[in-house]
Structures are given as C-alpha cells and as structure tokens.
Write a structure and sequence with these properties.
By secondary structure, this protein is mainly α. The protein has two domains: 1-44, Up-down Bundle (Single alpha-helices involved in coiled-coils or other helix-helix interfaces); 47-141, Annexin V, domain 1, CATH 1.10.220. 65% of the residues lie in helices and 0% in strands. It is built from eight helices and no strands. The chain is globular. The chain starts with 6 loop residues before the first helix and ends in a 13-residue tail after the last helix. The model has no long low-confidence stretch (mean pLDDT 88).
C-alpha cells in the first residue's frame, strides 16, 4: 500500500497551524531530520498561495517586487488565479504586470527564477508578519 500525502500534504497541514506553531514544529522536525525540515519549508509557500492575499497585502508585496518579474512569475499559474490577482490591483499596476505576463516567450528557467524571487519576498513578509496566507478565507482582523 502506497502512503498518501507526502511532503506537499504535510506542508499544507503546517500552514493550517499558524506561523508560531508551524515554526515550533519545524524546529522539532529539524532536530530529528534536517533534510525533511528543509523540504517542508521549501513546500510551505507556493506561487499559487498569492490567491489568498487580501488586496492590501498584495499591493504591499508588489511594492517590493519588480512588476514585470511578478508577471513573468505568473506565466505558469492557473488563469483563474491570475485573473483574481489582476482584479485586485490598479490599472497602472496591471499593465506593468502584463508586460511580464504576456511578453515575448521566455525560458522555463527564467519563469522559475522569477517565481523564486517572488516567493522569497513573500516568505520574508510572512516572517515579519506583514502578510498572512489564509487559505480558509476567514476574515483577517
């Protein structure tokens, strides 16, 4: 019998714990299995998690991200998520993002690099408490 879930499923469960509880659990895991902790951390946040941001959090993120790079990072994201994100920003910001999103064909490695840059900034803002990923859709106070 094949086990269900895996690292991505475990990372989703960690997300549900909240920042402090997830950090404590990751620290415990790191003591026993540093490689597993590293894999979990790498899977905690994905580019698709941008859909759970409020408009204010998205604009706060975009202040620190090159908009064309952000658009490039969205190239492999589901159209529904992209449309949702684009609906949360002003027309000027949307046009700058579209330069990267709809520009000339680019290598997959460039898209992956752009995603890594966006995720790194997103993680930094989450660690500082400026952004909260809330997949449940509960209203944040």
């Amino acid at each position: 019998m094949k086990p269900k879930g895996g690292v991505k499923e475990a990372a989703k469960m960690l997300q549900c714990l909240g920042v402090d509880a997830a950090k404590r659990l990751l620290d415990d895991i790191r003591k026993r299995d540093p490689q597993m902790a590293q894999e979990l951390e790498a899977n905690l946040i994905s580019i698709e998690d941008l859909q759970y941001l409020t408009p204010a959090m998205l604009v706060g993120l975009l202040r620190d991200v090159n908009l064309e790079t952000f658009g490039l990072a969205l190239r492999t994201v589901d159209k529904e998520i992209v449309d949702k994100l684009m609906s949360m920003v002003s027309t000027g910001i949307r046009l700058d993002i579209e330069d990267g999103l709809k520009g000339a064909p680019r290598k997959v490695s460039e898209v992956t690099d752009a995603q890594s840059k966006v995720i790194a900034i997103l993680k930094e803002k989450i660690d500082k408490g400026h952004i909260v990923i809330n997949p449940d859709g509960d209203t944040l106070v």
